[in-house]
Description:
The chain is an alpha+beta fold.
Amino acid sequence: MSQFDTYLAENHSRFEQDLFEWLGMASIGTDSAYDEETKRAANWLADKFRGLDLATEIIETCGQPIVYAESPKVVGAPTVLVYGHYDVQPPDPLELWETPPFEPTVRDGKVYARGATDDKGQMITHLFGVESWKNTIGDLPIQVKFLIEGEEESGSAGIEEFLEGKYDKEIPVAEKIAADIAVISDCSQYGPGQPAITYGLRGICYYQLNLSGPNRDLHSGGFGGSVANPANALAKMLGALIDENGRIQIPGFYDDILPMTEREREQFDSLDFNNDDFAKDLGVTELTGEKGFSTLERRWSRPAFDINGMWSGYQGEGAKTVLPAVAGAKFSFRIVPHQDPQKIKAVLETRLREVCPPGIQMELVNLHGAPGFVLPLDSPFMEAASQAIAKGFDKRPVFIRAGGSIPIVNHFSSLLGIDTLLLGWGLDDDDPHSPNEKFTLADFHRGIKSSCHLWEEIAKIEVGGRKSELGKEP
Ligand code: BES
Ligand code: ZN
């Protein structure tokens, strides 16, 4: 039993009603056709914060607005910065949704909607955590600041500009949002019934490659074999970036990687993981990847190269004998701690120029990049989060890494000097970014309860002096 149980039970269905209303707003931050819905979501959230007597403002940026709210400073107690995002990925392809993406529907104890797990459903647990504390106990034992952006799914340009600037004429933003620790719930548990704390994420380097050959599309009979074909060149150049053992073929690419400690490898091995089940769930006949590494290592702590989109030539029905004038691709590397996106861009460009066939012009465009990181496992904040999750989920969390990227964590480290607790309530098969995204309602409620206990556990920590240790060995 915990002191919050009565309040949580009494408000169980109202939390869900609020969640469904929240998920019903089509806050597709990247698509200006949805700007009104995106603003409606920002206003709805701000109203909720105001309803909890938090000092709340909607901060305009060069892109979508930020919703910022804070409770009063508690002298001698830590301050927590909760980050999340209210924007969602575009829901297409729409025809693959069993029920419409912005009409939240419950099936089998799970709510299906775009943003259910990523990140509207997860982030709002902390709002309800604050509400439950206030209505059960009274004033919060620590200061909580909420920084909720609307462009996470499309590059976070607005918030990055905001973080570097002034909050008003005198106060730098970094001072306004100063905290002792950041908290983000935008990832997953290890599995059903096994909560986790994520202590490392991969970074990302994202590019577009544009190739051009002849000055117009040509008849492949009249010209094929005598003129370089940009589509052939694209296949060759991208193919040259990785070998059959899953090793990226760019001199210098692996130079700086922070190797995993023996303790970490053992810890990965101790996690219950079945390759056959994993493959079966994804509908693949075999798993592949870098030789010499387990599936969890390949997903969480080794780099990866993925083509995200390619175009060239004829894509319509039937056949067309064309030698296309241009070809292009979007592709990205997931990178791991101590790899530097700027250095990766340089060694990649050198390699691509080396394998670019004669007669082809290439242009490499850098779309975005962020380093990966690991967080220290031995911090009092980790212990506090562990205790809180154990109370919320009735099970102690395991420590995991994850393969996705949350670039803002790097900014919290460099700008505010603080580490981040990545406390995911989702599951690996929630299908974020895919049709039929979902969130398990029992985990939503466990997340709220964990959040209540998180404030309690963090209040026990003595503050002062701990600097970010992002990037050190965990
Ligand atoms: N919630 C994800 C990040 C994530 C995914 C963390 C899986 C842990 C496991 C986040 O919303 C996201 O999708 N991030 C992007 C970042 C990119 C656009 C810079 C990603 O990882 O692709
Ligand atoms: Zn996402």
